[in-house]
């Protein structure tokens, strides 16, 4: 065999060996690539399954949240309806008593009922905030009026413990701001109520209110300082968590749901404000917040200003103010009527048990205002209001309508206002609030005609 033949043979063998090696390598690479593709496909399927599970979990969570909200709305309505009668009649009886000492049992009933109402409100508010359904109002209000009213509601609670309250309000506070006065009042009441709760007999509470103005904005500053039990530094953050109080035995001794400060923190945050606390055990605590509100130039009278003017000035002597009360619950009918007549003003009250009867009554008599329940048989308050606003001729379609219901969710209020109601009051209603709103809308309606 020649050398050339040997060289060619070796080269051929080497080429065959390389081809075999290349083929094996390619097969391995292809298998590896195929395995990677399978792995990617499996990961893709896993990711799709995970996404589907997340979507399903999100839907379930939303359904659960909606169910919880609906359950709370329903149970709140069922509790508020009888509670409205208990509180309402107790306050009517209290108004006829000269002093709370004349009937201590009655005073205790009112206190217990008010506490129950506060607990229900706290649970509903916290549920709305957690579900992202808390809607803030944006209306003109007098800060001095809101603050002093909030403080005055706690006067008796402070007197019970012989706790004195010192109030320092900057006299240069703007007269009118724009925001949500009800939520501002709720924050203030919660903070002062807490200060009273954790104070001992004969201690003092100091309240300071100020405002720093900048570009037509008032940074409202509020601080309440007590001499109560105080809070350990390592527990200052936890007190703003839901269902939490500084120590486990605190709720047993002082009572409360542990939701008050959690709600305050969230309400302040919703209004772009800040909340701070400084405290020392057995020395006391200072809770303070700052919330920015636009400053408004005073243009139209507030509800309280109109209420200050005697309503009879707008009516002829001997002329009654006719109110149509639309309510299907017999006890609530009697309570609302008795409350209105107790004011000794020239009111008379007719009753319709549903929206259908209300429309029939409007066709027979001239009314100055309608108090409209929402949940009624045959024709509910929403349907009746829509009919009055869209199907009846002037002046009947312009009558002021105030909704009265035990439903406390903002969506219910928004629906009522969208359907044509002028205002909305939640049961159990505050007699003074009802009186002010009736005076306001009757007066405004009379002036516009």
Describe the 3D structure:
Helix 1 runs antiparallel to helix 2, helix 1 packs across helix 9 and helix 10 runs parallel beside helix 11. The protein folds into three domains: 133 residues, Signal transduction histidine kinase, dimerisation/phosphotransfer (DHp) domain (Helix Hairpins, Orthogonal Bundle), CATH 1.10.287; 156 residues, 2-Layer Sandwich (Heat Shock Protein 90), CATH 3.30.565.10; 128 residues, Response regulator (Rossmann fold, 3-Layer(aba) Sandwich), CATH 3.40.50.2300. The chain contains 13 helices and twelve strands. A five-stranded mixed sheet has the order 2-4-5-7-6, covered by helices on one side. The protein has a five-stranded parallel sheet with strand order 9-8-10-11-12, with helices on both faces. A two-stranded antiparallel sheet has the order 1-3. About 4% of the residues have low confidence. Helices cover 52% and strands 17% of the residues. The protein is elongated and about 145 Å long. It has 449 residues and is α/β, with parallel strands linked by helices.
Question: Beta-strand percentage?
Answer: 15-25%
What Rg, in angstroms, do the CA atoms define? Answer: 34 Å
Reading off the top of the CATH hierarchy, the class of the largest domain is best stated as Alpha Beta
> Could you give the count of β-strands?
12
What separation lies between the terminal Cα atoms?
129 Å
Q: What kind of sheet is the major sheet?
A: 5 strands, mixed
SS summary, helix count: 13
Strand order in the sheet with the most strands: 2-4-5-7-6
